[in-house]
Amino acid sequence: MMSATVIGDEALAAKFTAAAVQLQAERKTWLPEVAEMVETAIEGNIARQGLIDTGDLIDSGRIFYQTANGISVGFGNMLGYAAALEFGSHPHWIDAGAGWWSSASNLYFQLPSGKYFYGPRVWHPGNQPYKFINRGAMEAFYPICLFFMAKLRGIFGGSL
Predict the structure, then answer these.
(1) What is the value of pTM for the model shown?
(2) CA 118 – CA 137 distance, rounded (Å)
(3) pLDDT-flagged residues of the chain (< 50)
């Protein structure tokens, strides 16, 4: 039978407790940095999936003001199609001027075949969920982990 004795575990626990306190105290400075990492990752996902026809979706990203518990990153505000891109949509009609954001009486756009459509209504076949927010936020996980590892190295004097 083998046994082991851990020496200095109380000191290590005290260092981690102090690190947690320091990270909490610096939250107002690092939280916006983390939010920018999430926003950048979502923008990258939008671009990689080719959801940049007009640029409106990628340009709609914004970081909300910090709250007591965190900070939020949002995309698609005022874009009627953003939710359908994130979650997918069933086949449906699209009418010109159907939303508060549009007063158009006709739709006009280029079809995948290269031809142009012009008319008051078009049948949309629906689309898959692109999950650009979900996937982008998950892609931010690794850079955020590296960010906090660097923070902890600084707190522990580079010995982590």
Answers:
(1) 0.78
(2) 37
(3) none
